[in-house]
Amino acid sequence: MHADEVLVTEPLVRRLIDDQFPQWRHLRITPVPYSGTDNAIFKLGEDMVIRLPRIHWAAAQVQKEHTWLPVLAPHLPLRVPKPLCMGDPDFGYPWQWAVHEWLDGQNAIEAPVKRLDKAALDLAAFISSLHRLDLDPQLPAPSGNRGCPLADRDTEVIAAIESLEGEVDIPKVVESWRSSLDAPPYQGKPVLIHADLSPGNLLVKDGNLAAVIDFGMFTTGDPACDLMVAWNYHNAETRPILREALSVDDATWARGRGWALSVALIALPYYLNTNPQIVATSRRTIHEVLQDHEPNNQNLLS
Length: 302
Prior knowledge:
Elements: H1 10-20, E1 29-31, E2 39-44, E3 48-53, H2 61-72, E4 83-87, E5 97-101, E6 106-107, H3 116-132, H4 154-162, H5 170-181, E7 191-193, E8 202-205, E9 208-212, E10 219-221, H6 229-232, H7 239-246, H8 250-270, H9 276-292
Antiparallel strand pairs: 1-2, 2-3, 3-5, 4-5, 6-8, 7-10, 8-9
Helix pairs in contact: 3-7, 4-5, 4-8, 5-8, 8-9
């Protein structure tokens, strides 16, 4: 998926485990089909999972998750991964890697929930709980490139749009993007945000949302970033449920729509020929944004 990604093979993972964690030599290692792009995933035995960054920008995520996930877990209403240990670079593999507790479930792309309206309330509870948490001054602040002002993404978004001739309705996409840029910027204190809430990072078990995974993008910033889930996962019937539960004002909602659109537009050309699930989610998100965008109501943002 990336021109400069590191090839992570099962024999390599076996060598890393056997050498650094010999107590697990007897456990089977099984590749896990996964629509994500930053990490190679392998199941270790029945109740652990190995995550190895496959691209340089994901390398710092290992330490960030190891530090922050145990702090966040007690305060969140949905389960999050539990880090167990970190491995070191070796045998030609260049970065630290992680072993987490295995979480049962299927990602929400493959496993629909029984009631999407309930899922909206569950996500609202998760988002509001996360955003209310205070940043622990004793811990290194989580860093990332999301949660920033939308204007910081304009150059990259426009470049993506220009590469999507014939793939999207460019005039409508530009109009929607500009309307989000016109929304008043966030002036509040930066909050803790997951920053990558998408159906591929939601686990469903027994028809209900059970966990939120992949905190690699976790950072601080504009809470509107976490509203992207309203368009990449929800629809016209359940978006209002999520919005009402979060008490979101017009400006924040418009920025959230902009976040959903920008992530989808940038991902679509990048993964067009390599990751069908991300492409499908991106196309669906763009469709939902354009269906939801109401240019006649832009005066609400003033």
